[in-house]
Predict the 3D structure of the following.
Amino acid sequence: MIDELEIGGAQNQILLLGRAMLAMGCEVSVAYFREKGAVLVPQLQSAGFFTLPLHKQRRLDLAFLIRLIKLLYSNIDSKILSFGYTANFWTRIAAFLLLGRKLKIVSCVRDHIYIPICSKPTERILIWLERLLARNSLQIVANSNAAARSLIKRGVGHKNNFIVIPNGVEPQAFSQRSEARERLQNVLHLGKGPIIGCMSRLVSVKDHATLVRAAKIVVHTVPDARILIVGEGPERKRIEDLRSNLNLDKHIFLPGSLPGHLYLAGFDIAVLQSLTEGMPNFILEAMATEVPVVASSVGAIPEMLENGKLGILFPVGDHQALAEGILSIIKTPAEARSRAAAALSKTKSMQPEKLAKRYLSLFN
């Protein structure tokens, strides 16, 4: 169960876990609430999933709720994984309205905010509802200890309410470095210097301005450095304007969206400078491709990078510290390779097959 099937972290995890479960002999269906932007439907179907649109039109949609109840009733013996606040909320509401029919639901928390931030009275009501509806879940899974702590701090639950299962990643799904590097050279055309790359949507929370300002410092020291900002979104114009204002048009490239599994291994450094994060797949994928990481110290990132042992952390919004982190990797490549190798080793415990078994065991 998920609210939408646009490209995103939770959707990627559904694809990885679902494929692993199919390989284990399970039948996998993905029910999604909203059809707008559901670009992943063909990919899920080609992987062997059944896709079940529920046509949710409004925030409060009685017809949608009836369809959801009917779906759950007709799959009363199924194992149900719901991803994210909206899917968790409505799946549990429907389960409650089935009047005692016990469903096997595992609810998944994918971010640190989870319950929408709103006025205090409304927030208290939503927290109360969440705690009440949580009784309809066999288990609640957070994808990081940081996410679990965030919810506990807000009073959503006790520490004993949460099980932590991290996001999964498939190292074998990525191109080899030589192949990815050749593709990147075709995108960048010019230069042979180090490639510093960020893959994320071009939205304000990703704080690309900090990366652009850091690039000014980096290219002053390493003139042939190239910065690749991969993705699309509403912040493109602002990023381009800042690039021009800082005279970085020859150093910063915005090629639009590129498939990470074909290009990521070609980076020399992976950067993520977000203001807030959950457990970002980009960092996990960089670890799996043995690319050194520099990332802002938010969300689950310190946990993923073991507080700097597996990558360099910097304070949110500090472009000077970001530049120093990038230059440190360029100047001390042996140390960077050692951290990256340790990061790769960590991802071996995050293979989807292992995580799928952990999820399925929660239903016993």
The longest strand covers residues 104-109. The first helix runs from residue 9 to 23. The CA atoms of residues 269 and 292 lie 5 Å apart. The radius of gyration is 21 Å.
